[in-house]
Amino acid sequence: MSKTIPVVIASAVGYLMFVACFSPYLLPWRQTAEEWYTVVATIAMLYGGVNLCTHHLKKISDREAGWGFSGVTLIAFAVTVAIGLLKVGVVPESVKHLDRAWSGQFQQEGSAFWWIYQYLFSPIVSTMFAMLAFYVASAAFRAFRAKNVEAVLLLLTALIVLVGQTKDREITSLLLAVPADGSLPNFPIADLTEFIRKTFVTAGQRAIMIGIALGVVATSLRLLMGLDRSYLGGDE
Questions:
Q1: Which of 31, 104, 217, 229, CA to CA, is 20 to 30 A from 125?
Q2: How far is CA 3 from CA 8, 10, 12, 219, 225, in A?
Q3: For residue 112, what are the CA distances in angstroms to 75, 79, 95, 152?
Q4: Residue 110 — left, alpha, or beta (φ > 0 → left; ψ -120 to 50 → alpha)?
Q5: Using CA atoms, how far apart are residues 12 and 28, in angstroms rounded to an integer?
Q6: pTM of whole model > 0.70?
């Protein structure tokens, strides 16, 4: 019974959201379900925050490996949440509420929360992706070894696209004679790159999207029919 009721609720709401797309009479029910979803998502976020704090506090208490990073995580989490909730540095946007700083947006430019995002979070994310670029380059070097025909085709295509994305006409102008009118030499790697992107890449992306759509439909049907109960946290 403890698992049957959640499955029935999930299936009923799923069918409601699906049927409401085709019946305007069920639109108010769908809007109510979306409001409930917002409430449940908010509770889930609060639960996630509590779980985060509990996990890292236990790690600090047990002095596990890397417990110092857990301390930094908790401090950053607490400071960010406090600044966001208190809207530190937010200027009221409405003339009628000049005495109420809470009337402004917490992400307002110049606020403390905006400063954290702009000068702390964004540089950290950029640094992470910059480090990932080296791993991608290493993986590409290993994958593009011309061991067979497929690898040779992959290598040539990658080189064409790479050169086509780096101003190929200016690069090839160093190797080819410049026309008398001073224009760049016509070495259409960029055109070939565009052809590859519009033809082969687009076809591959559409095939992948069709496969993803079929997977979503199959997973949705399993959830609606109660066959997939992984969201309950058990093995069923």
A1: 104
A2: 9, 11, 14, 19, 14
A3: 16, 10, 22, 52
A4: left
A5: 15
A6: no
